[in-house]
From TrEMBL, chain A:
This is DUF1468 domain-containing protein. The keyword Transmembrane applies. The keyword Ribosomal protein does not apply. It comes from the Bacteria. Residues 16-154 form the DUF1468 domain. The chain crosses the membrane at residues 12-30, 50-77, 98-115, 121-137, 144-163, 175-191, 203-220. Keywords: Membrane, Transmembrane, Transmembrane helix. InterPro entries: DUF1468.
Automatic annotation (TrEMBL), chain B:
The keyword Transmembrane helix applies. The chain crosses the membrane at residues 26-53, 65-83, 124-144, 156-186, 206-228, 321-345, 357-380, 392-413, 425-446. Keywords: Membrane, Transmembrane, Transmembrane helix. Residues 26-441 form the DUF112 domain. Pfam families: TctA. This is Tripartite tricarboxylate transporter permease. PANTHER family: TRICARBOXYLIC TRANSPORT PROTEIN.
Length: 249, 503
C-alpha cells in the first residue's frame, strides 16, 4: 500500500494507542485489587461494604477504559489499521519531527528536573529562552542539537554537582549555566548578524524571567523557585535591605 | 417581573461597587489586553490565557480581582482570535476557525477595517447576550438545583464528561470518552474522599493529595501547544488593513438580526456542559448558512457568515458559565480553567455558591466586554502589529510563565514534574486525535463523581435504583444511557435508516 489516506493512518496509530491503553487499564485494574473491595477495613473505618469501598469507582473507570480500548482496537483492525501498523507511516515516524520532538523533550527535562530546582531561575530561564529561540526559530537541525547540548551541559553539571536537595543552595552550577548562557548568546548573535530575532533574544531572555520572578516574589509575595539562586538572592537582599527601608522612610 | 427587578437591582449594586474601585480598571485593562494578545497570537488559546492567569492570579489576590483578571482575559482572548483569522487566514483560537472562512476574503477585498469593526461590535453584543442569559437563567436554575442531591450530581458529572467527549472529539467519539476516562482515572489518585484510603500513590507522599488542578491544566493546555509550536514556519502574509474600523450605526442595525440569532445560539451551545466556543461558532455558522438570504455567499466573504461565528463564540462565554456556576460543571475548556481558579480559592461552584459572586461575575463580564469593545475599535492596529511576532519567540516565554505559575500555586517542584508529565501525554493525545478538554473536565469532576456516586450508594445501602428513583435522576440517567447508546453500531444504523427515511 503506497498511498494511505489520513483515516487509515489514524487507525494504524489507534492500533498502537489502543494496545497501550489496554496494557495500562489491565495494570491499574490489577493495582485496584490492592484496595479492599468487599467487606473490610479501609482508612481506619471498619465494616466497609462493596458499595462504599474506595475501589468501586476506580474499578469501574478502568474496566470502562479497558472496554473502550478493546472497542478502539477492534475498529482499528476492521478499518485496516493493523495492516499498516508496522509501516513507517503507521508508526508516525518522521526523522525530522522525531529530532525536533526529542530535542525539545531533553531541553524541557533538563530545565524542569535539573535547572529550576538547583540553578537561579533567571539564569536557568534565560538559558532556556536563548536555547529555544536559537534552536527552533530557523528550523535547522544543527541548531536544535547545539541548543540541546547547551541545556544538557548545564543540566548535567547541576545534577552531578548537587543532586541531593540539601545541596541545592550551592552556586557553582549557577556559574556554569551562566557561562553556557553567555556563550550561546554570543554564538547566536555572531551567527545571526542582521537577524532582528537574534538581536531581540537577549532582551527577552533577561527581561522576561527577571520581571516574572520579581512580580511573583515582591508583588504577589509568592513562593518562587530557588530563592537562594545566584542572582535572585542578591535582588531579594537589596529589595528588603536597601529599597524597602528607603520606601518606608 | 419582581424577580427580574430584584436581579437588576442586585446587578446594579455589584456593577457600581466594581466601577467605583480604581483597581478594577488596572486589572481589567491589563487582562483584556493580555487576553486579546493571547487570542491574536496563533498558537496561544483562550484556555491557555485563562490557565496561565489562574497560575498567576488564582489565589494570590482577592477573589474579586482574580475574577476580573480571568474573565477579562477570557472575553479578550475569544475576541482576539478574530484578528489572525481576518488578517492572516490563520485562526488565532479554535473558536475563530469559522471566522477565517469569511473574514480573510473580506480583508483581501479591501474590507478588512469593516470586518474588524463589525466583528468587534458583534463580539461585544454577543458577550452581552450571553451575560444577560447568565443573569436570568442562572437564578432560575439555581432554584431548581437546590433539589439536586448526590445521585443527580454524580449523573451530571458523568453527563458532562460524556457530552464533552462526544462533542469535542474530531475523530471518533470513543476517543473523547477514553480521554474523559483517563481524566477520571487521574482524579482517583490520592486519598479517597470518603474513607481516606490511599489509591495509586506508589508510596510517594506527594501523590496522597492527588493531582493538583493547576499543574494539570498547565500541562494539558500549555505544554502541547509549546511542543507543537516550536518549529520553523513561513511567516503568513499580513493583509493590508484598509478602511474605517469603527462601524456605522446603519451597518450594525442591518446585521442586528444575525447578531441576535447568533448570540442566542452561542449562549445555548455554551450552556451545554463541556462544549466550547469552537462548537458554538460552527453551529451558528451552519445555522446562518441555512437561514440567511446570502447563505450561498458564506465562505466567500460574507459579513453575515463572519458575524454568525464571531457573535456566537463570544456569547458562548456567558452560556458556559451557567452550568459552571449552577452545577459546578464547566461549560467550555476555558471555563474549566476558571473552575480551577475557583477551587484553589476554596470556592465550590454549584448550588451552594454565594449568590453575590454570581452578580459580581455578571458585572465583570459586562465591564470586560465594554473594555474589549473600546480596545477593539481604537487599538486594533496595535494588535495587528502583535501578529508579526513569530511563535518561536513568544512560546519560550509561555513556558517560563507556566513553570513559575505552576510552582507558585502548589509551591513545590513536584508540581512541575506533574505538569511536564501531563504535557507530554497530552501532546501524544493531540497527535492521536484524542481531545484534551474531556481529560481536564474528567480530572476536575472526577473527585465529585467519586464522592457523589459512593455517597448515593451509601445512603441507599447499595441499592442501585437510587439513580433512577428520583425524577431528575431518572432523566439524567436516561440522557447518559441515550448518549452511550447513540454510539452503539446497531443504534447508529437504526438512526441512520430513520434519518434517510425522513430526508
Amino acid at each position: 500500500m503506497d498511498i494511505h489516506d489520513d483515516k487509515t493512518v489514524m487507525r494504524a496509530r489507534d492500533f498502537w494507542a489502543s494496545l497501550l491503553l489496554i496494557l495500562v487499564s489491565v495494570f491499574f485494574i490489577w493495582r485496584t485489587f490492592d484496595i479492599p473491595l468487599l467487606a473490610g477495613t479501609q482508612g481506619g473505618v471498619k465494616g466497609v461494604e462493596w458499595f462504599n469501598s474506595a475501589a468501586i469507582v476506580p474499578l469501574g473507570v478502568f474496566v470502562a477504559l479497558l472496554i473502550l480500548s478493546v472497542a478502539l482496537l477492534a475498529r482499528s483492525i476492521r478499518e485496516g489499521g493493523a495492516a499498516l501498523a508496522l509501516d513507517k507511516v503507521g508508526l508516525g515516524w518522521n526523522p525530522a519531527e522525531a529530532l525536533r520532538f526529542c530535542t525539545l523533550i531533553v531541553i524541557f527535562l533538563f530545565y524542569i528536573v535539573a535547572l529550576v530546582p538547583r540553578v537561579d531561575f533567571i539564569i536557568a530561564s534565560g538559558l532556556l529562552i536563548t536555547a529555544l529561540i536559537y534552536g527552533y526559530h530557523s528550523g535547522r537541525p544543527k541548531r536544535m542539537l547545539l541548543a540541546t547540548l547547551a541545556m544538557t551541559v548545564s543540566g548535567l553539571a547541576a545534577l552531578i554537582l548537587h543532586f541531593p536537595q540539601s545541596e541545592w543552595n550551592a552556586h557553582d552550577d549557577d556559574w556554569i549555566a551562566l557561562g553556557v548562557w553567555l556563550a550561546l548568546t554570543i554564538w547566536s548573535l555572531w551567527n545571526g548578524r542582521g537577524d532582528p530575532v537574534a538581536r531581540v533574544t537577549p532582551v527577552i531572555a533577561i527581561g522576561a524571567p527577571l520581571v516574572l520572578i520579581c512580580a511573583m516574589a515582591f508583588a504577589f509575595r509568592q513562593n518562587v523557585p530557588n530563592r537562594s539562586g545566584l542572582l535572585f538572592s542578591k535582588i531579594e537582599y537589596h529589595y528588603y535591605v536597601t529599597l524597602a527601608p528607603m520606601w518606608r522612610q | 417581573m419582581d424577580f427580574l427587578l430584584s436581579q437588576l437591582i442586585g446587578f446594579g449594586g455589584a456593577f457600581v461597587a466594581l466601577v467605583s474601585d480604581p483597581l478594577t480598571y488596572l486589572y481589567l485593562i491589563g487582562s483584556v489586553f493580555l487576553g486579546i494578545t493571547f487570542g491574536a497570537l496563533p498558537g496561544l488559546t483562550a484556555t491557555l490565557a485563562v490557565t496561565i492567569l489562574t497560575g498567576f492570579f488564582g489565589n494570590k489576590i482577592p477573589l474579586d480581582y482574580s475574577l476580573i483578571a480571568l474573565l477579562g482575559a477570557y472575553v479578550g482572548a475569544i475576541y482576539g482570535g478574530s484578528y489572525p483569522s481576518i488578517m492572516l487566514n490563520i485562526p488565532g483560537t479554535a473558536a475563530s476557525a469559522a471566522t477565517a472562512m469569511d473574514g480573510h476574503p473580506l480583508a483581501k477585498a479591501g474590507r478588512g477595517g469593516e470586518a474588524l469593526g463589525l466583528t468587534t461590535t458583534a463580539s461585544f453584543i454577543g458577550t452581552l447576550i450571553g451575560t444577560t442569559a447568565l443573569l436570568v437563567f442562572v437564578w432560575a436554575l439555581l432554584l431548581v438545583s437546590k433539589n439536586i442531591a448526590s445521585p443527580e450530581k454524580a449523573l451530571l458529572a458523568l453527563f458532562g464528561i460524556l457530552l464533552s467527549g462526544a462533542l469535542m472529539s474530531e475523530d471518533l467519539v470513543i476517543k473523547g470518552w477514553i480521554a474523559g476516562l483517563i481524566g477520571l482515572a487521574m482524579a482517583m489518585v490520592g486519598l479517597d474522599p470518603l474513607l481516606s484510603e490511599p489509591r495509586y500513590t506508589f508510596g510517594w507522599s506527594y501523590m496522597l493529595s492527588g493531582f493538583q488542578v493547576v499543574p494539570v491544566l498547565m500541562g494539558a493546555f500549555a505544554i502541547p501547544q509549546i511542543i507543537a509550536g516550536m518549529r520553523h514556519t513561513q511567516r503568513a502574509k499580513l493583509t493590508q488593513l484598509t478602511g474605517r474600523i469603527v462601524p456605522s450605526f446603519a451597518a450594525v442595525r442591518r446585521y442586528l438580526p444575525t447578531i441576535t440569532r447568533s448570540g442566542v445560539i452561542g449562549t445555548g451551545v455554551g450552556a451545554l456542559p463541556g462544549v466550547g466556543e469552537d462548537v458554538a461558532g460552527w453551529v451558528s455558522y451552519g445555522v446562518g448558512k441555512t437561514v440567511s438570504k446570502e447563505g450561498d455567499k458564506f465562505g466567500k466573504g460574507s459579513i453575515e457568515g463572519l458575524l454568525s461565528s464571531e457573535t456566537a463564540n463570544n456569547a458562548c462565554i456567558g452560556g458556559a458559565l451557567i452550568p459552571l456556576l449552577v452545577l459546578g460543571i464547566p461549560g467550555s475548556p476555558p471555563a474549566t480553567a476558571l473552575m480551577g481558579a475557583f477551587m484553589i480559592n476554596n470556592v465550590i461552584p454549584g448550588p451552594t455558591l454565594d449568590p453575590s459572586i454570581i452578580l459580581r461575575v455578571v458585572a465583570i463580564l459586562v465591564l470586560a466586554s465594554f473594555t474589549m469593545f473600546l480596545m477593539g475599535l481604537f487599538t486594533a492596529r496595535v494588535f495587528i502589529r502583535i501578529l508579526r511576532i513569530p511563535q518561536t519567540v513568544f512560546l519560550p516565554v509561555v513556558l517560563i510563565l507556566t513553570t513559575i505559575g505552576s510552582f507558585s500555586v502548589g509551591g513545590g517542584i513536584n508540581d512541575l514534574y506533574l505538569m511536564l508529565g501531563v504535557g507530554v501525554v497530552a501532546y501524544f493525545m493531540n497527535m492521536l486525535a484524542f481531545p484534551i478538554a474531556p481529560l481536564v473536565i474528567g480530572v476536575i469532576l472526577g473527585g465529585m463523581f467519586d464522592e457523589m456516586f459512593r455517597r448515593s450508594l451509601f445512603l441507599s445501602d447499595g441499592d442501585l435504583s437510587v439513580f433512577a428513583s428520583r425524577p431528575a435522576a431518572a432523566v439524567l440517567l436516561a440522557l447518559n444511557l441515550a448518549l452511550i447508546a447513540s454510539q452503539l453500531p446497531p443504534v447508529k444504523r437504526a438512526l441512520g435508516r430513520i434519518r434517510r427515511r425522513i430526508v
